[in-house]
Amino acid sequence: MGSTATPAVEPEWLLARRKAGASAAADAGLPTAKTPGWEFTDLASLAEEEFAAPNGADPSARERADAILNPPGGAPRLVQVDGTTVAEPDAALTPGDAPTEPVITTLAAAADLYPALVGERLGSLADPADPFVARNDAAWKGGAFVYVPKGKSLPEPAQIAAVHDAEGIAIGFRTLIVLEEGAEAEVWEQWLTTGHERRGLFNSVTEIFVGPGANLRYVTAQGLGESSWVFASQKAEIERDATLDWVALGFGSARGKVRMETRLTGPGSNAKVTGAYAGGNSQHLDFDTRQEHAAHNTVSDLAFRGVLGDEATAVWRGMIRVDKGAQQTDAFQESRNLLLSKSAHADAIPGLEIEADDVRCTHAAAVAQIDAEQIHYLRSHGLGDPVAKRLVIEGFLEALVERLGEGPIRAAVSVALERRLGEILGARVS
Question: pTM (2 decimals)?
C-alpha cells in the first residue's frame, strides 16, 4: 500500500515545474499600479518586506486556529499548519494511473502516487505568466488533492484547512480538485490563522476540473491575520452538463488580490458563484472574477456582497466573456457594497466581452451607505441603534444566504457572517 506521507524526493517532472516557476518569478518581479488589473492594490510595501520559508509546524495550531466554518461531524479532514500536514483522512492509497474510489490527500502525495493524473492537470489552468502563480509553482508545500472517479460521490463534505501559525513566513498552498464524469462532491476549504495580527504572506493556487455531468459545490473561506498578505488564483473548468456551485468568503488579510475564474467549456454547463466579504480597520480586499462562456447553451450566475466599516476598502472587478460561437449564453453578475462609515470605500467594476449575438448578459453594481431611513423606521418601532443597524446589515446579506439553498453550508455561512459582523460592528458603526 502506498503512503500518504510527503515523499522524500519529488518526481522529476514536479522538480522541473518548480525550477521553471522559480525562473519565471525571478523574471516577472511584482505588479505595479500600471499593471492591468492592479490599479487598485498597491504592492510597493510588499517589495520591502521579507518572509521566511516555513520550518516545521506546531500541531496544536490546529486547535488554536479560529475556524470560519464549522464542518458537519464525520467529514473527512485534511489540515496543514505552515505547509506541514498535521491531520489527514485515514486511508491507505495504492499507486497507479488513477484511483478507483474517491481520494482526499495531500497534493504532494498524489503527485507521487498518481503522476500521470496529477502531471496532466497540475498547472494546466493556472496562468504561468502571473507572478504569484510562478512563485507558487516554485514553493508550494503539502497542498490538497481531491479526486472523485466516474459515477462516484463523496458521502460527506471534504474539509481542507491551511493554517498560518508562525510569524513572518510565506506559505505556498496548492489545491487540485478533479471530478470525473457523473461524479458528485462537496469541498470546504479554509485559510486560517492562529493570531488576529499574524504577519505573513499566503499564496494559493487552485485548479478545479468538473467533468461531464458532474456536480461540485466548492466553498472557500479566508480568515487570515489582518497583518498578512493574501494572493490567490482560482480557476475552474466545467464540462458538458456539469454544475459548479462556488461559495467564497473573504474576511481576513491586510491586503492582496483574489482571482476567481469559471470557464464553461461544454454545452449545458452551469456555474453559480456566491461571494461575501466583510472588512474593518484598514483592510483592503480585492477580487477579480471572470465568467468565460466557451460553448453554446451555458449559464453563469455570480453575486457578490460586501460590508465595510472603519477605513476598510474593497474593489471587485468582474468580467463576463462570451467566446465566438457560444450562442444561447445566459450570464449574470452583480456586486453590491454596504458602507458602515464615511471613511470606508468600495469600487465595483462590471464588464462584458461578447463575441456572439444570441446571448443574454446582464450586470449590476452598487455602493451605498447604510440607509438612514431604514434605521429611523426600526428605531420608531422601539429598537435601539445598534440592533437596528445590525438588522439592516443582516437583511442586506440575506439575499446571498438565500442563494445557498438548504443544507449544512447554509447554516455554516450564516453563523460565519454573524460572527464576522460582530467583529467589525459595535461602536465602530457610524
Answer: 0.94
CA proximity to 223, closest of 413, 427, 52, 429? 413
Question: Is the pLDDT confidence value at 428 over 70?
Answer: no
Residue labelled with grid coordinates 471587485: 316
331 beta partners = 300, 361
pLDDT level of residue 430 (50, 70, 90 thresholds): very low
Query: Which three three-digit cell numbers place residue 22?
Result: 522559480
Contact 19, 123 (CB under 8 A): no
Q: What is the DSSP letter of 52?
A: B
* Percentages (nearest 5) of helix, strand, coil residues in the chain: 20, 40, 40
Residue 426: per-residue pLDDT: 63
What would the pLDDT profile of 35-79 be if each residue is shown by its tens digit?
Answer: 999 999 999 999 999 999 999 999 999 899 988 998 877 778 999
Kindly list the domain boundaries of the chain, sorted by start residue. Answer: 12-428
CB under 8 Å, gap of 24 or more: what pairs does 115-124 form?
Answer: 115/11, 115/13, 117/147, 117/178, 118/145, 118/176, 119/11, 119/13, 119/14, 121/176, 121/178, 121/207, 121/209, 122/14, 122/17, 122/174, 122/176, 122/207, 123/17, 123/207, 124/207
Alpha-carbon distances, residue 40 vs 31, 48, 52, 315, 316 (angstroms): 11, 19, 27, 7, 10
Cell of 260: 476567481
Do residues 403 and 219 touch, judged by C-beta distance below 8 A? no
